[in-house]
Amino acid sequence: xxxxRALIDLQALRHNYRLAxxxxxxxxxxxxxxxxYGHGAVRCALALExxxxxxxxxxxxxxxxxxxxxxxxxxxxxxGFFEASELSLIAExxxxxxxxSLWQLEAIEQHPVHKPLNIWLKLDSGxxxxxxxxxxxxxxxxxxxxxxxxxxxxxMSHFSRADELDAATTEQQVAAFEAARQGLTAExxxxxxxxxxxxxxxxxxxxxxxxxxxxxxxxxxxQAQAARLxxxxxxxxxxxxxxxxxxxxxxxxxxxxxSTRPTRVGVVAMGYADGYPRHAPSGxxxxxxxxxxxxxxxxxxxxxxxxxxxxxxxxxxxxxELWGKQVLASDVAQQAGTxxxxxxxxxxxxxxxxxxx
Length: 357
Ligand SMILES: *Cc1c(COP(=O)(O)O)cnc(C)c1O
What we know:
Its cofactor is pyridoxal 5'-phosphate. Keywords: Isomerase, Pyridoxal phosphate. This is Alanine racemase. It catalyses: L-alanine = D-alanine. The protein is α/β, with parallel strands linked by helices. The chain has 11 helices and 18 strands. It has helices at about 10-25, 35-40, 40-50, 60-70, 85-90, 100-110, 135-145, 170-180, 195-200, 330-335, 340-345, and strands spanning about 5-10, 25-30, 55, 75, 95-100, 115-120, 150-155, 190, 205, 235-245, 250, 255-260, 265-270, 285-290, 290-295, 305, 320-325, 350-355. It has an 8-stranded parallel β-sheet. The site of pyridoxal-5'-phosphate (PLP) has 12 residues, from loops.
């Protein structure tokens, strides 16, 4: 069997969820959209269900997958519905629903709903992606109440720059949210992972941690609370071939690496078809047989090469960690010019294996 796999540490996932809730001093919806950022939504949700106040996903398809697996906890649809016809399923499966646009509000007013809905009313506090304009916010709230179709309303917004520790935007967004919700008495929710980790004095009855659950930092710089996270995924494989090259020999497609010393090259069963980023350059850290070394040459579809010159004990069959507890996914992502969110989501073909039930 091909040795490439992603090991998912559910114990670490629970640790990170509890840390989120402890730091926030609030209820926390575990964000498991996009198949739990590549970690397997059903398995992750089942592992968290005893602890979790609820879950959040991007669409009803993802929510129904959780319900079909027996998850009874609240599940929030972060973009609400895409078509009004989803409303009956939303009511039937007791899903919580974001309203981010006036067309959704009108759909709720017009659509027969046989059970009262739980609505999270989203304000555009400055990100300018989705969310109601502040001038429409109060009226939308009143219309939802007047529709008679709503059991509860939570007031929410989303940060655009909370991962930038010194940007003033987050405080401006909080101020915009405070102004817009004045006079409304309802619970509120603002913070994503960077909000939970770095913006402690933000009003929050509910927080919505995503990336931090999976143990990756949303920050480009070191941050004290983020250092307490435990990586959940270990992407691993093995050495499948070893060769010795003299000085001046190229390795891989396009000869992007040429040996400048006698070099021992190891080939790893892992490539961009598995989701390992093709843009990771020579020098990207990799751990072989417990020792830190580096990627050399271009990543190909099913294989990549590593420098074993300083790891003489490594041979065919030696274990390789591409990212995990020794090499952080955020470091690999940074090398490849992307973010850990994306390298997790890009994972494919690699079987997921779970430990720490
Ligand atoms: C994805 C998402 C989150 C989680 O964000 P992280 O940065 O991964 O913590 C929170 N809220 C909303 C609305 C989202 O879409």
